[in-house]
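Let's practice the habit of predicting before peeking. Look at the sequence and jot down your guess about where helices and strands might fall. Then scroll down.
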Amino acid sequence: MGKLSFSARHAAFIDAIDLDALRSLALEVHANERANSPERPTVSPVSCTVVTPPLHGGYNIAFDLEFSDGLSWIIRIPLDEWDDTDARSMQRDISTMEYITSHTSVPIPRLHAYCCTTDNPLAHPYMIMDKIRGLLLDDVWEDPSWWTGERKKENLLESLAGFMVELAGLEFDQIGILDWLPDGSYIVGPFPWGLGAITSDGSQKECGPFHTAHEYINARLASRRARESDPQELAWMALAQLFLGALPETAYDGAPFTIGHPDYDMQNIFVDDTGRVVGIIDWDGVHIQPREAGAVRYPWFLMRDWNPSMYDGDEDELGTYRKMYTDAVRVASGGKLDVVTRNSHVVTTLYAAASGCYGNQGMLIRLGEYLFGSDLVLMEMWQGLQHGGWLTGPANEVARVKLWPEPDESVSLDAGKTAHGDEVAQRAKDTKASGLIRVQRLGRWVQRTFLSVVRTCTPREVKSVN
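Done guessing? Here is the structure:
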């Protein structure tokens, strides 16, 4: 959970928290644990300090709880309004974290108490867990003065890869959410959020589970298309649809699937004084994912050059770290999983773009650079999709060819500015000077390159739902 500046929304929520009730709750949990742990020496009386202000991210706040007997805990409280669906999702997350900690050594903080509803003295759902003794990776990763002596990034990547290889050992036959039954067993259940058809009242219904990675990401695209009417946005989604037929490895399309951290980035990783991982937090929304986007994929901080709209990233430097991480996965897995990791940045980027993550247009342009060696090819494809019959033809008529007469300079400029900065916008503008001959030659080449992919995508699947 990052140290972000307080917003008015956060401030109002925090001001409404009853700190006395929070302190009493923490002391009650502490006393119950002490009573049930005779090996722990009795220290009386015990007091608790609630450290303010709390840390917070976009969805939770977290208060430090410092006890007079030396224990340090965290209480984590969701910011959003709460309903039964949220309570069920929180219970699934907690049960999945407990499953991970009981089958691996992945350093998830120990959970002391929780409530998934507002029916408690605090009047908010909460989790009380151990405070991790370590440094947030976000605070030291880009500080060269910290990585000296025994503090090595090799230590970080080797320990992180080791934990993720352990996590990859938990295999499942479907993509979805782990749903826990009263007897302690589980099933792979549907996603309760972000996927699925739109019902008549405008709400979403549960969707999944899925038997292939292709089926899963197509469902995410279909969910976005069902809400979208902007031709430019639909054209970006159509590009993701085309890439989906070309980039993921077919060998990893089916089971087994693995659990992946839902926000696998440096703000959720703690390290010790040697740079080794000692804690991984924020597992909200944890679920089973395709292998190339699952446990042994690259963490996001090693992929920033593949999201150019959001981050600056040097491909040579990050490529060196990716190679280091791949080697660490190879060693930890006995040479079995590094083939999954090696190009996972490509497929993870595609899945993120298809799902509508922040910077998704820049991600697609980066994928276009990878495929064609040029961002201009992708920009012209994007324009062409807005003119061609695949997306623009009426859904109730026989499909027919619609030729694109001339590049639309204004659209290209707008796309460049929003997706990849002024440099691409200027380069997109320069393409018009090359004239129709270049466009026609390019179109024929793109047609040949993607013919097999296009044939796998039904035209009506790419149209928005009217």
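How did you do? The radius of gyration is 25 Å.
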